[in-house]
Design the sequence.
């Protein structure tokens, strides 16, 4: 699709979940690092949910649910 002289970009959005024993930040980074192994042209990432796994009254795992968008190839 074209509007004037600009080409319209089309993006796809998927949801992924990353995990880390260290922090929410690392969980989010891990999600993107894994996604980029199979997804090209990642443009944006949005953290939409965080949660923690608790075992024996201790935090054992941080999780970050992420929406990532990437350009659709033509």
Sequence:
């Amino acid at each position: 699709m074209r509007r004037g002289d600009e080409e319209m970009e089309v993006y796809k959005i998927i949801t992924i979940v990353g995990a880390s024993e260290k922090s929410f930040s690392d969980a989010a980074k891990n999600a993107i690092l894994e996604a980029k192994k199979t997804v090209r042209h990642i443009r944006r990432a949005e953290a939409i949910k965080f949660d923690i796994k608790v075992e024996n009254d201790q935090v054992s795992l941080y999780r970050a649910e992420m929406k990532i968008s990437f350009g659709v190839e033509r």
